[in-house]
Every structure is written in structure tokens, then in C-alpha cells.
């Protein structure tokens, strides 16, 4: 019996893990910043609700919509992970994808790893400060095609919680109905890995070449997802071995029955 940990689910950070931080900062953030003012003038109930939330979070009761748009733009400049900004950016980027003006980035190893996990029966989820809708749109419009069918669930700061809070990872475990010890969380941020580990998850760091050199402490780490999967010691989980055995047994049984008919 393998001593390697049994992993039933992988949870992936996006920015700096599956995807280039530079791409996001050079393309997506400026694109959203340039369109915030126009979006906030649309006056739809959804936009109104996001502006009200912005006013509450920024401590700007009675601010005009133009003032709130300026606050949202400042949050873009600060890379603030505030939910109303993330929701608004998701809406802006959705229109950009539809118009063919933006494309999401994933590293070349990502589609390969997602297909490997699918074939091995490991469910893959994402956890990002980007809104759930933005995450879904991101994977639907990558430079490697539509990868959304390879993902199970997306989690953000609304449906899970802050990324450096262990409770967020416990919430994800409950939501996907997998014990934390059978979940591998991958991220480029040690603080997120620490939080996931405190919730009982297995962890692995991603040192992407363009990211600053990072001290992952006691967390194993890799340079791409395959490397990280191996570094975490999860290359062949017990569950995978069992599933493969089941497949082989089923194929053998079918072959036997076919041969019996032919005879
Ligand atoms: Mg990250």
C-alpha cells in the first residue's frame, strides 16, 4: 500500500499560481480602471448595490457616484481585494471577453494538469479574491481555450472568506464535502498556505519564474503544477490507485465476456 497521501480534491489559487500576475496587472487591471466610471453611470440595480457597498466599506456615506467611482479606481491602483470592486471588475471583464478585447492567461502546464487530475478522479476547485463570476469567465476565455469544464467549484471572499483566514479553508472543505486532510491547496502566497494548513489541508507553494523568490518555510513547493504535485508527494494517491484498479478490473471482465461470446 502506498504511503503517499490520498488526495481527493485540489484547490488552486489563481493569481501567481495558475496565471501570471503580470498579465493581470498589465492587461486586466488597467482595462477595468478605464471603464469603471462608465459602468457606474449605468444605474442598474446590481451596479447601485455595488456602489452602496463601496460607500459603506470606504466610509463615504452620501458620496456621489463620481466620488465612489474614484474610490473604486483607487482600489484598483492599490490592488485592494474588496468584494464590490471584484464584482464590478468581473462584470467589466465579462463584456471584454465577449467583445474579444481581453483574454485570460494560464501557464502552459495548467491545462495539462487539469486534464491529468480529471483523468485521475481528483476534483479541482479554485479559490481567488476575484469574484466567482470573474473566475468562471477567466477559465472560459484562456489562451488555451475553454478550461471551465475541467473545474468543479469556484470560491471567493464572499462564499468562503478572506484568503489568509483558516476558517475560509474549513468552509471550502465543508462545501465540497471532502475532509481537509484529503485536499491539496496550491498558492504562491505563504500566508495563504499557512491558513490552509491550520485548517488541516495539505499545502504546496508555487514559485513561478516571474514571481519574486519566495520563502515557503515548511511548505513543499514547485515551479509548475506537475512539479508541485510531485513535491507535495501526491503523484499517485491511494484513491487514484483504487480507481485505476477498478477500471482495469472492469475492462478485464468485459473482455472476458466478449471472448466468451465469440467462443
Ligand atoms: Mg496568488
UniProtKB/TrEMBL annotation:
Co-factor binding details:
Binds 1 Mg(2+) ion per subunit.
Entry protein name? Enolase-phosphatase E1
Q: Respond yes or no to whether keyword Magnesium is given for this record.
A: yes
Organism of origin: Dactylosporangium fulvum
Return the NCBIfam families for the record.
enolase-ppase (TIGR01691)
SUPFAM superfamilies, sorted: HAD-like (SSF56784)
What EC number(s) does this enzyme carry? Answer: 3.1.3.77
Reaction(s) catalysed by this chain, per the record, are:
5-methylsulfanyl-2,3-dioxopentyl phosphate + H2O = 1,2-dihydroxy-5-(methylsulfanyl)pent-1-en-3-one + phosphate
